[in-house]
Amino acid sequence: MRKTIFLGLCVLAAISLSAQENIQWRGDRTGVYKETGLQKSWAAEGAKLLWNYDGLGEGHSSVAVSSGKIYVTGLTEGKGYLYVFDLTGKLLNKKEYGNEWDQSYNGTRGTVTIDAGKVYLISGVGDAVCFNESNLDIVWKKNILADFKAENIRWGICESPLIVGDKLIVSPGGQEQNIVALNKNTGAIIWSCPGDGDPAAYCSPLYVSDQQVPQVVTMMAKHIVGVDVATGKKLWSYENINRTNVHPNIPVYHGNMLLCTSGYGKGSVMLRLIDGGRNVEKVWESSELDSRTGAMVKIGDYAYGSGDANKFWFCVDWKTGEQKYKDNQLGIGNVIADDGMLYCYSEKGDLALVKATPVKFDIVSKFPITLGTDQHWAHPVIYKGTLYLRHGNTLMAYKI
What we know:
Blueprint (H helix, E strand, L loop, with lengths): L1 H20 L4 H4 L18 E7 L9 E3 L2 E8 L2 E7 L5 E9 L13 E3 L2 E5 L4 E6 L5 E6 H4 L14 E3 L2 E4 L8 E5 L5 E5 L12 E3 L6 E5 L3 E6 L5 E6 L12 E3 L2 E6 L4 E8 L4 E8 L10 E3 L2 E5 L6 E5 L5 E5 L5 E6 L2 E6 L3 E6 L6 E7 L12 E3 L2 E6 L2 E6 L1
Antiparallel strand pairs: 1-32, 2-3, 3-4, 4-5, 6-7, 7-8, 8-9, 10-11, 11-12, 12-13, 14-15, 15-16, 16-17, 18-19, 19-20, 20-21, 22-23, 23-24, 24-25, 26-27, 27-28, 28-29, 30-31, 31-32
């Protein structure tokens, strides 16, 4: 009996370790990492640069991490490439996977997702690709725009695929096949949902598992939508319109509450899932909290992020939307969090370490990112005491 219990604990520990080893879009899609013992301040010149790699090509995708290997994509001469590095920055492998987005704000978009020995991505031109993790051989590939009769969007599909069990969830935005579940091993369709027939909106889907009806939630061009993950049935939708049909920020979920944030004249709305997840109701909204691509994080009873037209960093009460502060001493950008600190990466190229407190926007340390090319849009990633930051052509690793 004791041997059985011991083996069971070992299995649970292995599962826990495996989960921690797999870093996908914004860590676990929340933007809140789970490491401890990180630095609470940096030297005057900034965090220590451990290594950098110049040669990724164009792109805004972040890194993913699995089993001590770093995965990131880039565009070179019209083609997309998947790069694999070890933790010292040594390039282990590189694989071309086909055409990539080169029409405006060129480069790769969505971060790859790694699951059970396979690597998945969706390119800016709509190719869903599954690679063998060990050698990067392509297992299957299909174009979700052509296959599901959808049109590409103004700045190219930007989505990190979501995996739930054997399902790979994607949002092509077709009139009839709007949100789709594919078999992750073969690419075959499992179900499709017509949703509200909206085009895609650059949003990566989120899995909400703690409702009576477990569901996928995403933002399409004009609606926030909840879909039964088992059947593909649309459970609910909430109209959510801005002037560009662009909603890139993944919703933030906790305790039946969904915080959905957009720029371009929209702002934030907090929805509450009711009836076991079969419907939603509005709790609060804010026109000021209008993050465009920077996303939000929830720490304790508060949400943190920056605006767009409202060029401030904000802290709001999670339950009420009451504004605790707004501050413009740092340019707007994206945010992740870990160990009681915010890591704020400004579109002007500054990386700031900020205390996660509702009292004030308390910048402890800040330094400029001088390596790399083009826009400062890729979200930082934390893994084993190192912060990985992609700026266009360059991948950097900082000791934190």
